[in-house]
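Risk register update: the risk of archive-format incompatibility is retired. Evidence:
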Amino acid sequence: MLAVQQLESGYGESVILRDVSLRVGPGQVVCLLGRNGVGKTTLMKSVMGVLKARRGSISYKGENVTKRTPGYRAKSGIGYVPQGREIFAQLTVYENLLLGLEASKSKTTVIPAEAVANFPVLPAMYARRGGDLSGGQQQQLAFARALASMPEVLLLDEPCEGIQPSIVEDIRDVIRSIKAEGKTEILLAEQSLEFVRSVGDYFYILEKGSVAWKGGLDELNEEIVLKYLTV
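Archived output:
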């Protein structure tokens, strides 16, 4: 289980997150919602350790990892698909996937079949440079790279941003498949309300860097959407 307690985080002198608490339980898809600039990406980076927490705590499987490095968290079983994908443009698709193995507990040098099974286009592109792929293909690569280490928690930051509808459907199917297996927790930050409603179990809405609302799918009604999410 992933748990965030009273987290405060930000950049430089700016405090972006204030007193944020959330939990992701076994097999759950927990969705993080909010308008642009409310702190969703900041929260993802803080959970992964890319940003240091100023106050509060982050625990994973009962261990306080607040002061642990991103590498430690990755090797403990937390996978991360960042906003903007952040693949290595000059490396091949295969080399990008091999980098995902750095966080594997098994120390294997073989890309697990499960990592690319849901993205059948990737094996045919192993020799191509990451930078030569389309945006949607890069997103699939970033997703598969995170899955290569067989994570127990998966952080997905805006996985549908700027990609074509067919790839969005592929990503929806992958999330549903992971959810059905029940082995991996997912924390998903996403702007598309339709998308998160189709995959999510529980929802947190951020406003001005704090949790303004939380609840299940049945509670995420139009009144809440109009109040916190409509631009």
